[in-house]
Amino acid sequence: MDQFGTLDNLLQEERVFRPLPQLVIEANVNPQELEAHRRMAGHDPLGYWEEAADELDWFKKWDQVLDDSDAPFYKWFPGSRCNIVYNCLDRHIETYNKNKLALIWEGEPGDSRKYTYFELYREVNRVANALRSLGIGKGDRIVIYMPPLPETVISMLAAAKIGAIHSVVFAGFSAKALRQRINDAQAKLVVTADGFYRNGQIMPLKETVDEALVGACADCVDSMIVVRRCKVGVDMTDGRDFWYEDLIRNERNISPTEVMDADDPLFLMYTSGTTGQPKGIVHSHAGYMVGVHRTLNHVFDIKPTDIFWCTADPGWVTGHSAVVYGPLMAGTTTLMYEGHPNYPQADRLWNIVAKYGVTIFYTAPTMIRMLMRFGIQYTRQHDLSSLRLLGSVGEPISPEAWIWLYKNIGRNECPVLDTWWQTETGMFMISPLPISLLKPGSVTKTLPGVEADIVDRDGNPVPAGKGGLLVLKRPWPAMMTGMWNDPDRYREYWEKIPGMYFAGDVARKDEDGYFWIQGRADDVLNIAGHRIGTAEMEAAFGAHRAVHECGVIGVPDTIKGEAAKAFIVVRPEVEPDDELIKDLKRHIRNELGPVAVIKSIEFRDNLPKTRSGKIMRRVLKAEELGHEIGDLTGLEDED
């Protein structure tokens, strides 16, 4: 018996966990209703999503639910007029939600702020007016390079309220990565902070933006708004840079909400692909708000008394859908924390849960694995009895981590709802509900209105229990509506297996129809739930003076799930040594930021290639993991 009791023995079994009777009795969607939803979605999927749309407020209803005449460029609810911010804020201040807490925020030093729906509404209005005063209007792009602060949420909502398109960039990205995103979006304005607190230190941000704005993209950015978080000295450029507090101080707290067409873009989310250039995924107002609202409410069974805490950073799609837009549309209370989960010690998350009475806790397997290392001594120091539901997102969760979360955080009472979805899908796609039978490590079944399957490379379904490629067989409302200025890259999702959306994940489906996600099928690494392309990392290595060529693969990592290993051929005049390894790791951190975790670097005289000269990453991976390399003939055109 180990520290997890009989876990070693349990992991060799297939276990099924049943929900507590009280959860089923109190569920917003009971088993009979779920089955009715599935039947309706099966025979009338557009009727199902129309019913979901009727739960929200519209300035004008749609002419049709789905226009698929230009597939795969699907248009949801064409002819409608709406704005997601109206459903997040405006409608709530006309109801009993007006004085309910919308946002609870805690800073790493222990400071905190709270906003009711009415207070958040007025603050968003002030910022919306400030944006308009800076010349920002409908269709303009705003880059938000911010840590988890209230002003991050407020800036997102203010941008959407006036019809601008926001692109939130994770504050851990480097100046070069930020510059790429600003330049691609042709952003007119950047919102940032002087710095933020992380693991007891002040992390500067403004200077990174200043560095990013030196170069090709400097001409497109007219203004920068700076939040004074840490009160550290920063350089302010006259006429371009404005302190957030100064800018909004005299603005009115009433501001009109822009009326948007259904397919007007809401935000750009840059994500890594199999090429070196990040791709700007576009989500639009109407479909995104319908899909996110329906699936978040169903999966997390939102109650009027809930305190919803998703630990994701706003810079990722999980932060958009499960920290900002989803909870606010649902009229619940969303919680944000600024800092490191282990500061000042490894009980910080559990302290926050107990302090605010969190009822729903939604996090990533990486976080769970990190906290598992400290055992259960810290969990026992806090009263976690307020918790009702637990959730997992971002990467496959192992049965071991699932059991630890269920047993030590959920007290063997809270279901662990493992959700599968992507930046591209916008909403939950495969997930249990609180009433579902659960198998540790499985994301269970598709949600109503979603059709997924496991197929081979020709699109043929594979038998139960066999591994294959995860595909989606029909469109869904919150799907991305395109790739920013790059329709060909969008089409690729639908052309790899014609007529199906290629998710890029390897998975299997068991005899009960439960899905088990096994990892990425393409050249995209999933490091602590953050996607980064191998090509992007190889391009960064290639910019180093010592590197002749490079191949990057993903390797297992105990905490982060996956990390990167680089195989490098150095230039003839270079002698590889430990100092060069350190310098290369520093270089990658500077190029891409701390999200690019390099586990190890191996120097080689040459790399395996196809006859057309492409590096064969799968050969490197097979060698690294001790797998069979397989037949290498006929690989002239293999990527």
UniProtKB/TrEMBL annotation:
Domain AMP-dependent synthetase/ligase: start-end pairs: 91-483
Please list the GO terms describing molecular function. acetate-CoA ligase activity; AMP binding; ATP binding
Q: Does the keyword Phosphoprotein apply?
A: no
Question: Which GO BP annotation is one of this protein's?
Answer: acetyl-CoA biosynthetic process from acetate
What SUPFAM superfamilies does the entry give?
Acetyl-CoA synthetase-like
Q: Which residues form the Acetyl-coenzyme A synthetase N-terminal domain?
A: 38-88
The protein's matches in PROSITE patterns, at most eight in alphabetical order, are given as:
AMP_BINDING
Q: Which InterPro entries does the record match to this protein? A: Ac_CoA_lig (IPR011904), ACAS_N (IPR032387), AMP-bd_C (IPR025110), AMP-bd_C_sf (IPR045851), AMP-binding_CS (IPR020845), AMP-dep_synth/lig_dom (IPR000873), ANL_N_sf (IPR042099)
* Occurrences of domain AMP-binding enzyme C-terminal (ranges): 536-614
Question: EC?
Answer: 6.2.1.1
**Does the entry feature the keyword ATP-binding, yes or no?**
yes
EC class (word): ligase
Which Pfam family, giving just one, matches this sequence? AMP-binding
* Listed GO CC annotations: cytosol
Instruction: Provide the alphabetized UniProt keywords.
Output: Acetylation, ATP-binding, Ligase, Nucleotide-binding
Protein family: Belongs to the ATP-dependent AMP-binding enzyme family.
PANTHER family on file: ACETYL-COENZYME A SYNTHETASE (PTHR24095), ACETYL-COENZYME A SYNTHETASE 1 (PTHR24095:SF14)
The name under which this protein is listed is: Acetate--CoA ligase
Q: Which organism is it from?
A: Pseudodesulfovibrio senegalensis
Task: Write the lineage as a comma-separated list.
Answer: Bacteria, Pseudomonadati, Thermodesulfobacteriota, Desulfovibrionia, Desulfovibrionales
Protein's gene: acs
